[in-house]
Structures are given as structure tokens and as C-alpha cells.
# Entry
Amino acid sequence: MRATVTAHSDYTIARIDDRVYGAFLEHLGRAIYTGIYEPDHPTADGDGMRGDVAQLVRDLRIPMVRYPGGNFVSAYNWEDGIGPRDQRPTRLDLAWHTSDSNQVGIHEFAAWCDTVNTQMMLAINLGSRGLDEARNFLEYVNGPTGSYWGDLRKKNGRADPFDVKLWCLGNEMDGPWQVGHKTAYEYGRLANEVAKTMRAFDKSLELIVCGSSHSNMPTYPDWEREVLEHTYDSVDHISLHMYFANREKNTANYLSLNEKLDRYIGTVASTINFVKSKKRSKRDVYISFDEWNVWYHSNKQDRAILDGNSGWPHAPRLLEDIYNFEDVLQVGLILNTFIRRSDVVKLACIAQLVNVIAPIMTDPKGQAWRQTIYYPYYFASIYGRGTALQLAVNTPGYDAEHGDNVGYVDISGVRNEEEGTVTFFAVNRHGSDSIDLEVSLEGFAAATVIDHQVMTHANLEAVNTAADQHNVAPRQGAGARVDGSSLSVRLPPYSYQMIRIKA
Ligand code: AHR
# Structure
């Protein structure tokens, strides 16, 4: 099989916002406790944060991490996580039927973000709480000393404001499962008042209003329209979430899911434009895709805890999906979609980062290792920065549940002007055929291949474990070459590839 692509230096989509490679950490299961924080661990630093995990996170160069939820945030009192640790209350977490010792709060999380060179994206509780909590939390985090909340922060060890710019106005408020679930009208009105109040404190904040939890939600996409009609002038982004699953064990359909993702983004982009026109507005609102990942492997084993049959455990194993090789392809496809929609998707967070549906796994007191999906996320985050190219793609395809004529080759291209490189991320969705890919490079200087990483595996269900950490891992590719202005490479069946050229 053969596929052709034309990449022209003048045909671009948009400058990719680096923050599209963000991540998410929730007080859920072992994401925080025995994930990033484990004071008894041999690698723990003075704050009790695991050094081995911090290193794996640092390697990903994550621009920002959303915190502390998720569903958790909708019944969370941020004040429980400040002050002397031995006086912090243990609370029941109503979202996940667990308990939280509050040993990690905003100060500890901020210090960890400094350690791993990332920024915070904070979510406020608009479920069980509202405007007052939002303004108090904002003043505590960003306010000057000499005022009540700033002075309290100083008393708790931090004189300088944390200066957090990104704020999520609640979480999945369209979901009936959410503590404090609201209608679009109720939420839109509240979110607008909260946004106005937060802006009265600081005009330069970037505010994210809740869109749909999924494109299967019955309220989608009317939710977006109505919420934006209330908030258009006071927010910067609307948040979308989507999780990917292969419950039917149908790889062809599973690998077509990013067609659905693309339509979801397109529909919300159109809704934004509709409201913009209706408002006769000049300002733009963008999409924050602040929860995305594969999530289904652990569903059955989680039922007992989620149904409340296990009491209120602290940091149990919850949502611990063990990812396989097939999921590498899926994550590669999702990231390709974000690159191609970089004109509207400006923020995104893989959900989540450690242990809970995460690229990084840990054993308490033991090792930390990379799950299979760590790699496509790593390659996109490290090499997917720059300008997205508008590629013309000619590939054979197949009809699947989520799209017709879904290309066997899915590809994105990123030009990094500063480095003088172009990077292609390609997935071959064909299960038995290799595809000879030819990329015509137009308008670039004479090119050479500088890196070629390939991920393939004989078994789609292959995983990485503590005992076998490198079962699914990239290897150096051979055979990608540039001849004149043409890049050629063979894509093996079910493969993920990253090809970088100097151009
Ligand atoms: O990431 C896990 C959960 O998925 C989050 O808490 C929630 O926002 C979403 O439903």
C-alpha cells in the first residue's frame, strides 16, 4: 500500500500553543498519595515528594498541570489543605467514595510544580460552593500580603503570591454525577458572575468555563451555546473532555475514534463562532481540552469502591488502567488531532499523570515506570512544538463506526522555525499491511533525517509492568530517507512513528 503527503512551508494551520501538552492530577486513588507524594519512599525529597516520579514527569516537559480535580473538586474545601499538616482534617471524598488526609494541598502542590518545572492550572469548586469560595481561594493564591488571605498564605510559609493565571470555573457541571450538577442556565449565570468577580481582582487571568463532559451527553452541544451566551465576554476558553475505550475489542472502530474527536472539536468551534456572531463580538474564545485519555481497562475492578462497598479507603487503587500497545496508537491519533486543530485547541491535559489513568505508574515503596502511552505523549510534547503544517494527505482508507473512509495513515506535521526542523507523527491503522509513505517537501531548505522513532509490537495487548518495563518502547527506525525534496518511509502495520528532519 502507498500513501502520499504534500507539506509546504507556506501552508500552515496555526502556531501550536505549548500548553496543549498539559496534564492533570486529581486527588483520586493513588495519583497524589503514593503517586507524586510518598514521604516514606527512598527517593522522597524534604517535602515527601517522590524523586523518581518527579524525574519521569520532568522528562515530559509538561507546561502546566490541572489540579485538584476533576469530580473531586466539586465537594472540596481548599482550606482543608493549608496550615500545619498535623492539624489538617481527613475528609470523605464524595466523588470517589474514598477519604483524603489533606497532607497535600496548594502549598505542597505548588512546590512540586516548581520541582518539575511546570505551571499550575487550578480548578475551583462550583459544585458544593460558589462565588465566595472562588474569590477567597483566588486571593489566597494570588493576593498581596497586607490583606487577610495574602497574610494567611504568608503565615503558612509563602509570602509571594503563587501567581496562577489559569483557572477552571468548576468541573463537568453538565454531568448528573457531579456534586452540585447544574443546568446550562444555572451554571452559565453562576460562571459569569464568578468570572466577573475574578476579573475584578485580576483582568489578566485566563478563565475556562465548563463545556460538555462528552459529546454523547444529551445536553451537547446546546450546553455550549447556552453557557457561552452567558459567559462569552468574560471567559477565554471552554473546556471539553473525552475518554476513549475499546470495550468491544474492535481495533478498527477503536482507531476511528479520533474522527469523532475531530467532529466534537469542530462542532464546539462552530458554536463558539455562532455565539461570537450573535454577540457581535471581536474577541475569541478557544477550546481547553482539559481531560483526554484512554479509560476503560480498570472499569470493572473499580466498581466495588465506587459503589461504596469498600468503606472510605485512603488512596486505594482506582482507575489504574494498564495500557497496552493498541493504546499507543490511540494516544498518537488523539495528539495528531490536537495538532491539526491547533487553531482552536489552545490548552489540553492528558488525564491523568500518575497511577490514575496515567502514563506513569508507581508501586508504593517500589519503582516508578513508563506505561506504553508515555511515549507518544513524550514525543509530541518534546518535538510537537512550533507551527502545525496543513498537510495534503492522500491515503487509502476504510469505513468504521466513527467515520467513513478513515485514512489508514493518520499524520500531523510540525515546523519548528527556531530549530529549523520539521517533525511528522504518523500512525498506520492497517493491521496487516505496511504502507510506503512519500512526503513531498515543498518550500523547505534541503532536508536530512535527524531522528526516526518507531513503535510496533506483535501483540496489540502487550503492556509494561514493574517487572517488564520496556516491553513496549520506541526503537530507532531505519529506512526513512530524504531524496531531493521527497521523504520516504515505510510504516509497518499498526505502528506509530516520529520522523524529524532538518529543513
Ligand atoms: O479523570 C477522571 C474523571 O473523569 C474526572 O474526575 C472527571 O472530571 C471525569 O469524569
Notes: The chain has a mean pLDDT of 97. The first helix runs from residue 51 to 59. DSSP finds eleven helices and 26 strands in the chain. The pocket of alpha-L-arabinofuranose is lined by residues 26, 69-71, 171-172, 213, 241, 291, 351-352 (CB under 6 Å).
